[in-house]
């Protein structure tokens, strides 16, 4: 099967970690579909978000970075082709979260998609920045992201000001949406800067 030329860089993705983490993340989200309203489902959904975002962190890994840098395609163009895969991962997660919302009888659950999008953008922006020094930053970013989410959900350091990962209608969604909007904006700006060609 011939891919469009613009999608060529996506063929060099490290598919194994991307597929394994995506399957794990979507599987955790599906726990919320199968057992809605339970403590296990809530924990699985919260854990599924950084696992999916961690899969997106791997899309910018490039083992043959020096060889690829010699091709006449710009770094930004190569990065955008790979980021289409990250967008597909977010879409899969969003689809699973719609299922969680339908089974749980609460439209608020679909709002968790904002958290997934913010985490994914933060993951790919961090990976893009680290790629300046590391050819394959995906593992480091995915592990760090998972650790950060676990710390935020267990220690609740920001609880006084905002619910970072709300999942119920009665929680403070307004502050959370502002927080994740800021994370997304900073991540997009960082991603734009990090994907600039070194000689620009």
From TrEMBL:
The chain crosses the membrane at residues 12-35, 41-60, 80-102, 108-130, 142-161, 173-194. Keywords: Membrane, Transmembrane, Transmembrane helix. The keyword Membrane applies. This is ABC transporter permease. The lineage of its organism: Bacteria, Bacillati, Actinomycetota, Actinomycetes, Micrococcales.
